[in-house]
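Input chain follows. Return structure tokens only.
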Amino acid sequence: MNQQIYQLISFLLHYPNEEMVEILPELDREIEKTEDILIRDCLQQFVKYSKKISLEEWISHYIEHFDFGRITNLYVTYLKLGEQRERGLELLKLKKFYEAHGFEVTEKELPDYLPLMLEFCANTPIETSNELLMMHIKAIEEIRKKVTETGSYYHLLFDALMLQMANNGLSTTLVSKEIH
């Protein structure tokens, strides 16, 4: 279940749709198997809240926090580099990193899209996922900080992510300060 946490968070960070609403009860059962109580609690709270609101409200909340915010979008290199040429180089490096570890990246999504990164992490050894996440930990922590500041319940997913990263041996500054 350890690396599957990344897969759960990846799925829940995608744009909300009808399929996600339908699968929430099944996710609840999967989340119940999570050994880490703090991670389980974060994920359960997120799913519980998502069940209480309509799909339209969920979509609206998602758009407000991830589609229009420069700081809170889910493209981890965008925060630091924006649309600069250097970002293109970072994206190419990321694509090569994925390919070197047998993960095929489609043209459907940019390689710095956090849900894609987490999907990769769910399907690779901890050492490889840690290497990737460490390269972008500051951006992930900044997104989490901004999502928390705006009062979005998506902070629960980022809290769970930080806890999982810490469980896998990554030192995250926010875990010790804010979550525990």
